[in-house]
Specification:
Strand content: 5-15%
Number of strands: 2
Structural class: mainly alpha
Order of helices and strands: HHHEEHHH
Strand order of the largest sheet: 1-2
Radius of gyration: 18 Å
Distance between the termini: 23 Å
């Protein structure tokens, strides 16, 4: 069985971005509020927020009215973008972590096309789901997976 596992950091980053997308209309969203709503440590959110801010996905404002906002609209953020920042590579096998592939067997490996195909499916799916898609689905309370 292939075990592509997204880390806690990646899962929390997605939850944080969704929370901000949902609550940013009134003002900047504080980490304290996100931490309470999402039951995530504020300290952990600080690390994630720093990464997302440095990557240009969040805008931070200090002070009394401070917090975080999305730089773009929720429709412009894909799950793939968010996970790449927090997870790095999402390649299904280690030999595909580098481009070009540095594996000594890549020129004649019979299984490489399998992993390349799986990678394409993962990339296509995650790049096809936006924060807005997830928000819309949560409003509809649909049970079906996102396509």
């Amino acid at each position: 069985m292939i075990a592509l596992k997204i880390s806690t950091k990646g899962r929390y980053a997605l939850r944080m971005m969704l929370d901000i997308a949902e609550h940013q209309e009134e003002c900047f969203v504080t980490l304290k509020d996100i931490a309470q709503r999402q039951a995530i440590s504020k300290k952990y959110l600080e690390q994630i927020a720093l990464q997302l801010t440095q990557a240009g996905m969040l805008r931070a404002m200090r002070g009394h009215q401070g917090g975080y906002r999305l730089v773009k609209t929720p429709r412009e953020y894909t799950v793939l973008q968010i996970l790449r920042i927090t997870e790095g590579s999402l390649a299904p096998v280690a030999c595909m972590d580098q481009d070009p592939n540095q594996c000594e067997r890549c020129g004649f490996c019979p299984t490489l096309p399998v992993w390349q195909g799986l990678d394409r499916v993962i990339q296509a799916y995650l790049s096809g789901v936006t924060l807005q898609d997830i928000l819309d689905r949560s409003v509809d309370h649909a049970e079906a997976p996102l396509d």
